[in-house]
Amino acid sequence: MKLGVQLYSVRDEMGKDFEGTLKKVRDMGYEGVEFAGLFDKSAEEVKALCEKYDLVPVSAHVALHEMLGDENVLQTYADIGCKFVAIPWMSEEYRPGYPGFEQNLPKLIALAKRVKELGMFLAYHNHDVEFEKKDGEYVLDMLYRIIPADLLKAELDTCWVNVGGEDPSEYVRKYAGRVDIIHLKDFAGKKSENMYALIGVNDGQKDETVGDFEFRPVGQGLQNMPAILKAAEESGTEWAVVEIDEPTRGLTSLECIEKSAAYLKPLL
């Protein structure tokens, strides 16, 4: 496996100094990047910077409504050289078991086929909300059962799998051959009602009463990272991608991903 980073982890730095942040990421030992916005850079500029700093443009998180609403968005990431584009979050009407899913399913299938035509793969990045059961089956499992593996990859976020009540290592093995990318995300504490305030879902407002849930640099939380990495290697995962939604423990965002890389490089 190769080590990558989801640039959402350093989004403020990317906004201030796009090129400089890419250089810092490479200097930390990251081999690839997953984008979360291009900050008004063209595909040509981004591709050139990745080549300049020897970074693989692995993937991009792109809002579903953007991919459905503007075909040029997908072309941009194909031009950059991304192998994957990932849906970072889906509202209920696109989730199996909810009203609207059957109506919206053809849109998802058509999107996945269009992504494939452009030489990429569509992936889905889970949170813990997909670990709700409908008719005895997790929503996430329903999604991967209904849309075949050749159209939709499983970008498992190991933090949210854990928070959802499942063993991340076993879940990676469950989707062996389909999990080309995993998100390595560490945390402390436990699930709380207002947890998504931490990642800006509740109208972008953080709630300081969000229990004791806290993101951590990889290797400093509750996750059994050696076991997760072993499962990923055995399952054919190509990329282990660090994602830290918010800086923690008095560290900057860059320090959080730097400590994560230092922990992970000897294990890969």
Question: Your description of this structure?
Answer:
The protein is of the alpha/beta class and 268 residues long. It has a single domain (2-267), classed as TIM Barrel (Alpha-Beta Barrel). Helices cover 38% and strands 18% of the residues. The strands form three sheets. An eight-stranded parallel beta sheet has the order 3-2-1-12-9-8-5-4. Strands 6-7 form a two-stranded antiparallel ribbon. A hairpin with a 2-residue loop joins strand 6 and strand 7 (137-138). Mean pLDDT is 93; it is low at 197-210.
Topology, element by element:
Blueprint: E1 2-6, H1 11-16, H2 18-27, E2 32-35, H3 43-52, E3 56-60, H4 64-69, H5 71-80, E4 84-87, H6 101-117, E5 121-125, E6 133-134, E7 137-138, H7 139-146, E8 152-157, H8 158-163, H9 168-174, E9 181-184, E10 186-188, E11 214-216, H10 225-234, E12 239-242, H11 253-264
Parallel strand pairs: 1-2, 1-12, 2-3, 4-5, 5-8, 8-9, 9-12
Antiparallel strand pairs: 6-7, 10-11
Helix pairs in contact: 3-5, 9-10
Give the number of domains: 1
Rg is: 18 Å
Number of strands: 12
**Coarse shape:** globular
Q: Tell me the number of helical segments per DSSP (H or I, 4 or more residues long).
A: 11
Order the strands across the largest sheet as they lie in space. Answer: 3-2-1-12-9-8-5-4
Taken as a percent bin, the fraction of beta residues is 15-25%
**Mind summarizing the main beta sheet?**
8 strands, parallel
Distance between the termini: 7 Å
Main structural class: alpha/beta
- Note poorly predicted spans: 197-210
* Annotated CATH homologous superfamily: Divalent-metal-dependent TIM barrel enzymes
Order of helices and strands: EHHEHEHHEHEEEHEHHEEEHEH
Q: Mean pLDDT, rounded to whole units?
A: 93
Gross CATH architecture: Alpha-Beta Barrel
- The assembly state of the depicted protein chains is single chain
CATH topology (level 3) name: TIM Barrel
CATH class: Alpha Beta
Measured as a percent range, the helix fraction is 25-40%
